[in-house]
Amino acid sequence: MHGQDIWNNCAVRSVVSGVMGCGLGLMMGLLLGALDTRIMQDEMTGKRQFIYQAKSMGRRSWSSEKAFAVMGLVFSAAECVVEKARAKHDTTNTVVVGCITGGALSAKAGPQAACVGCAGFAAFSVSIEKFLDRLD
Known about the structure:
Blueprint: H1 3-6, H2 10-34, H3 46-86, H4 91-106, H5 111-135
C-alpha cells in the first residue's frame, strides 16, 4: 500500500480515529479531573489534596479515553463502510453513521437507550457537519 491508499483502508482509518479519540479523551479527562471541586480544603493537607486530585484526574482520564476511543473507532468504521457501500458522501451517510454510533454506544443500557442514542448522535452529527460546512 502506498501513502494515499492506506487512508482508503477502513481498518486503518478506524484504528487511527480510535487512537486520536483516546488522546482527546485523555485531555478531556485531565481537564475535567482538574476541575473536580469536591475537595474540602479545610479537611485535607496539601499533600493529601494533591494525591486526591491526581487520582481523580487519572480516573476521569481513563474513563474518557475509553469512551472517546470507542466513539472514534465506531464512527470512523461506520462512516467508511457506509461511504463505500453508497459510493458517496452526503447528509444521509451522516445520519446513518451517527445513528449506528449512538446506538452502539448506548446499547448496553437497553433498546430504548439505544434508540435515544441513535437519534441523539445522528442529530448531533448532522449539526456538526452543517456547522463545519458553513466554515468552508
